[in-house]
Specification:
By secondary structure, this protein is of the alpha/beta class. The chain has nine helices and seven strands. It is about 40% helix and about 20% strand. It has a seven-stranded mixed β-sheet with strand order 2-1-3-7-4-5-6, sandwiched between helices.
Length: about 210
């Protein structure tokens, strides 16, 4: 089955069942113990989130749709996946699902290395506000030169080695920029990265 077709069907499958199906195909999708991002949490109702997830899946991350219950995911299929493969967790979700993921990740010794808000509620543009040191700088640079979907650019920036390993200079403050909104954007998303506590992070403790 093609990964794109699999993603399109996510909204029609209960979260627990979909997560179990994806976990059963982890090796086939290239998830490997110790990879920088081994799992991606996403709200399968929205195209931007699916684009983000699919981009990271191509880099070997396992797919975990929230199914409207991020806590159930973290205490079920996702926790089992992390116990087996380790690595970090990236996400593009609602703000409430980020809150759940932050707390559940903390229970596993993980910390926020990057957080981005993507707000289109007050204008015809989509405002991106990024936090997380060199990780945020990498996302900012990717958005500036993006020639495709903004969600894909963020995912690919997170999948690369930390920017601090490639450059020394880091911008001060929290980078902010605007892009055109994508069709179907509900108004506000967050993107985020929870890092494995065993790995040094150049982000921030959220």
């Amino acid at each position: 089955m093609k990964r794109r077709d699999f993603l399109k069907g996510a909204a029609m499958v209960p979260a627990g069942l979909a997560a179990a199906q994806w976990s059963a195909t982890a090796e086939a999708l290239g998830a490997a113990k110790g990879s920088r991002i081994s799992a991606v949490v996403f709200d399968e109702r929205y195209a931007d989130c699916r684009i983000f997830a699919e981009s990271l899946a191509r880099q070997g991350a396992m797919l975990f749709p929230t199914g409207g219950d991020a806590a159930r995911l973290w205490y079920g299929a996702l926790r089992s996946h992390l116990a087996r493969y380790g690595g970090g967790v990236a996400g593009m979700t609602t703000d409430s699902d980020l809150g759940v993921s932050r707390e559940c990740g903390r229970e596993l010794g993980m910390r926020i290395a990057y957080e981005g808000s993507h707000d289109g509620r007050t204008s015809n543009c989509l405002k991106h506000r990024l936090r997380g040191g060199n990780v945020a700088n990498a996302v900012y640079a990717a958005l500036l030169r993006a020639d495709g979907p903004w969600a894909e650019s963020i995912a690919m920036a997170l999948a690369r080695p930390p920017l601090g390993e490639r450059i020394i200079h880091a911008m001060a403050g929290s980078p902010t920029l605007t892009t055109s909104p994508s069709a179907g954007h509900p108004g506000y998303f967050t993107s985020w990265l929870l890092s494995d506590s065993q790995r040094k992070s150049s982000g921030y403790a959220g």
